[in-house]
Amino acid sequence: MTWTDSDPTAVLVFLAFGYLCGTIAFGLILTKLFGLGDLRSIGSGNIGATNVLRTGNKKAAAMTLAGDLLKATIPILIAWRWGAPAAAAAGFGAFLGHLFPVWLGFRGGKGVATYIGVLLGFAPVGVLVFAAVWLGMAKLFRYSSLAALTATLVVPIAYLLLGNQMAAALTAALTVLVYLKHIPNIRRLLNGTEGRIGSKG
Question: Is 20 helix (H, G, I), strand (E, B) or coil?
Fold first, then answer.
């Protein structure tokens, strides 16, 4: 199926619907519910699960991870009834909503969990590719950011090799955004100051 095979109205509707779902800041909501304070004043200030984990509350971090993942998967699954382009739009919208939530002044998370949620809803084989690359890189170098950056780079290539051009195009766009949001991490990786997995701080 190509982009022209879907109703343009459905694509726009699900882009907006996905965006609204993506703006749900589970990290902020859950840390407040657990009495952990404002997540934006903790650790890196990021609203994602990694920063929630810095509060020491593993349950809140796991729930945030699940929420940030499913807020992309669920809109995609709903949108599939209107075709692959609508589903892709829902996923892209959810990803944009997580990265740039209007309710938080467009200052959102870095998108890794939501990226996986898009893979799960749109073309699940990508989750296996992502996991394999992430685990391999994490074991070799012990940098979570490097593992995520490498995995998001490999996934579109894998889809292209598998002949899923729409998934390749969608995830390539998401990968560009992931890299833009990880510019500080990339700088720290280059100058050797990025924190390793398991290190304190």
Answer: helix
Sign of CA dihedral 121, 122, 125, 126: negative
DSSP string, 81-127: GG-HHHHHHHHHHHHHHHHS-GGGTT-----HHHHHHHHHHH-THHH
Distance (Å, rounded) from C-alpha 165 to C-alpha 173? 12
In a 13 Å sphere around the CA of 141, the CA atoms on its Cβ side amount to 16
- Token reading at 22: 């993506």
* Position 97, amino acid: G
Cβ pair 3, 83 in contact under 8 A: no
Mean pLDDT check: name the lowest of 7-11, 159-163, 177-181: 7-11
The predicted model scores a pTM of: 0.94
Distance CA 80, CA 75 (A): 9
Model confidence over 67-83: pLDDT tens digits?
999 999 999 999 999 99
pLDDT range class, residue 50, cuts 50, 70, 90: confident
Which two three-digit tokens encode residue 159? 């889809």
144 touches 50 (CB < 8 A)? yes
Q: Is 76 helix (H, G, I), strand (E, B) or coil?
A: helix
pLDDT band at residue 201 using 50, 70 and 90 as cut-offs: very low
